[in-house]
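Data card: per-record layout.
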Amino acid sequence: MISNTKILCILILLSLSLNTIHVLAGDSDKKDSDEKDKDSDSDQKDKDSGSDSKEDSDSKKDSDEPELFLISCGSPEEVTDSEGRKWAPDSKFLACSENSSTAKVDSIDPTLPSEEPYGSARIFNTTSSYNLSVTTKKRLWIRLHFYPFSNDCLDQTRAYFSVVANEFTLLNNFSAATTAEALTEAYVVKEFSLTPVTSGKLNITITPSQQPENAIAFLNGIEVIPMPDIFKTTPLIGFVDQTIEVQNSSVQTMYRLNVGGNFIPPTEDSEGGGNRTWHDDAGYLIGAPATKFGITGEANGNVTIKYPGDVPEYIAPLAVYNTGRSMGPSPNINLNTNLTWHFDVDVNFTYVVRLHFCDFELEMANQRVFDIFLNNHTAQEGADVIGWAGSLAHGHGSSGQGIPVYKDYAIYVNDRNNGTEQVWVALHPNEKTKPEYYDSLLNGLEVFKINDTCGNLGGQNPVPVRHCYSNEFLTKKGDDAKSS
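The structure for this 484-residue chain is written out next.
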């Protein structure tokens, strides 16, 4: 017979077991409910994430387009130039605005291409920097704009400074006023092409020089524009089997000319070219007054300029290849002269001379053949534009007429004349091939300076006034300024 005590213990244990089962079941139900809520939240998050993912995708698509920067230094607000381009105020890009001041330009020179970005300036008393986030995959055009005006805040006699972009020195002890006077211009634009910035961070640092005492620096505008890699391995003239890997270097644009044609503003540059400016070449021609200009020509309506696959359209705009300069119709005169351009450059640097060709007059090879010289070195013997173009004219027919071609040549300029030196480009008819016409032709010309082994591109300030400008050119320039 079971005692009352034992019966009581059994009932207590049974009650505890039932309670335990109920509690576990309750926890399990709660867990299931929580899992369902979690799944529901997860589904909602997935939906939201899908929406966000689409937005991120759209944003990423937008960010795939490398950003360009047009910066108006010293301006408190966005401004628009005469070509309709919008320039942002520079304050948000400055690392520290306390080291600088701003100035509004009181009077704008009528020869300026636009009031903006030259209507304001930022003046630096100590080292200051602009910081920009840029594409890591493309080279960058960097253009620095200077309008050397003077007022109570900006004394140009003290404005000597350097500009460094990451590890490259762009300008060293630079004077915008001296340079503008030497160029007989009211303003100065310095253009550079930097190798890709792999960090994605571009730092442009401005530092006043140590001399003169209390030196200052200033800037009116900055452009940073992604660009295609337009450079390649280039033969070094004057050396046997030597080349320069220009694509691995940063460069400064020294000259960019539309030979035989008119001035081409940034807005009329070829798509993808990066808003380059192309100048008239007349002021750089030298020689006897009666023959140095040769003759200019323009493609007529029967000739269509057709870019071959090996020459992308961003290399140069159509307007460059639509016009050209040749020597003239007289073979006797041509055989006794050259078509020659002359450029002042900085010594102890290597330069790339890019020549643009497009023959829109002739149709057959060996009709016009000429030699190309750089500083009295033979850069190319037997240049035949139609022959070159014909080999590139895949699918355009056998003729090279109207097909653009460009050629690059590098030359080192050393210090032989007390710090001043030149690059000469001369074309002369080739007699060996007995062409149909003793003549030469050029459509465009660019000169680029390659950084030295220290990453330096800075040269000396030029000495006013540039004597390579002809009287005819200066007269024409004055007339153009009055008519604008």
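Known properties of this structure: The longest helix spans residues 4-63. Helices lie at 4-63, 176-183, 318-321, 331-335, 385-392, 471-483.

See the next section for split statistics.
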